[in-house]
Amino acid sequence: MELLYNLLVSVFRNLRVTLEMIKWEHSIFALPFALCGAMLAADGRPTIHQLVWIVIAMVAARSAAMAFNRLADASIDAANPRTMTRALPAGLLSSRFVATFVMVSCALFMFAGSQLNFLSLALSPVALAVLLLYSYTKRFTRWSHLVLGFALGIAPAAAWIAVRGSFDPRILLLTAAVTLWVGGFDVLYSCQDYEFDRQSGLYSIPRFYGVNKSLWIARVCHILMLAFLVGFVAVFGLGKIAAAGVLVVALLLAYEHSLVSARDLSRLNAAFFTMNGVISVVFFIFVAGDLLWRK
To answer: Which end of the chain is more exposed for a tag (fewer CB within 10 A), N or C?
Structure first.
């Protein structure tokens, strides 16, 4: 009995450390955009069943991707002063436990797909392949930031498929917007590792273009994001409330960029975590408000 108790305590401790490691609460980044896709597909009112399984799928997919990233990057994180205290390089978790967590999360994601419709289930391995591939792209391409963006950007299209059981090319406008949004803020975040990436031979935009030019590349990504959001609102025939949401997102992005400069990256974490969570939630509220107002 005592052995079983100790085992359960160990498992729950490792699970808690794993959830802290992957920052599971940041699933909120892409989730609101997925919910936008779901609401559009359902003409404003997806079923509770659909919403529950979409949320479970989103959290499971991100958990699998983040844990796999930590597993794939364990040796890199151990060499980087900024990341050497993470759970795997610090020895707080074993690779076996994290690998098991990844497999369970992947299985839960596929099960969630099976609870939605056949196409969601059939495409779930493809989505997982995109999510897990990202972890290796920084080893061979400076555009890994956009691969990460696309990994999150498929969320609205996946949610559309989850509701309709079919695909509509128009939702790719929101996919493109999310891809550029995430890619842009990942470029900002990677500026912290400019020196380490350069010394280690890792691929990133800051390594190849320097911090100052990278900040401008991130700004261009976010300007293009706004252009795609305008196109998204227009193509779906959304109204003034959704259009106002795009304007608010533009103001929030401008504030986000004002927090960082090539000379001062000290407020980057505030820009990366806090503002991006606010941006995704705010945009969802405006789109949802627009759809429901017309009902």
So the answer is: N
Domains belonging to the chain, first-starting first, are 2-293 (1.10.357.140)
Dihedral (CA of 6, 10, 15, 16) sign: positive
234/148 Cα distance (integer angstroms): 26
CB 144 within 8 A of CB 208: no
- What does 102-156 look like in DSSP terms, one character per residue? HHHHHHHHHHHHHTT-HHHHHHHHHHHHHHHHHHHHTTT-TTHHHHHHHHHHHHH
Q: For each of the chain's 295 residues, which pLDDT tens digit applies? A: 656 556 566 677 777 877 777 776 566 778 899 999 999 999 888 999 999 999 999 999 999 999 999 999 999 999 988 888 888 888 888 899 899 999 999 999 999 999 999 999 999 999 999 999 999 999 999 999 999 999 999 999 999 999 999 999 999 999 999 999 999 999 998 998 888 888 888 889 999 999 999 999 999 999 999 999 999 999 999 999 999 999 999 999 998 888 888 787 777 775 566 788 889 999 999 999 999 887 5
Q: Are 70 and 22 contacting, i.e. CB atoms less than 8 angstroms apart?
A: yes
Q: What is the 8-class DSSP label of residue 202?
A: -
CA distance 67 to 60: 11
C-alpha distances in angstroms, 261 versus 183, 188, 230, 267? 18, 10, 27, 9
DSSP state of 272: I
Residue 168, classed as helix, strand or coil, is: coil
Cα–Cα distance, 21 to 18 (Å, whole number): 5
Chain mean position to CA 206? 20
Q: 37 with 157: CB under 8 angstroms?
A: yes
Assigned token pair, 273: 């975590």
To which residue do tokens 């892409």 refer? 30
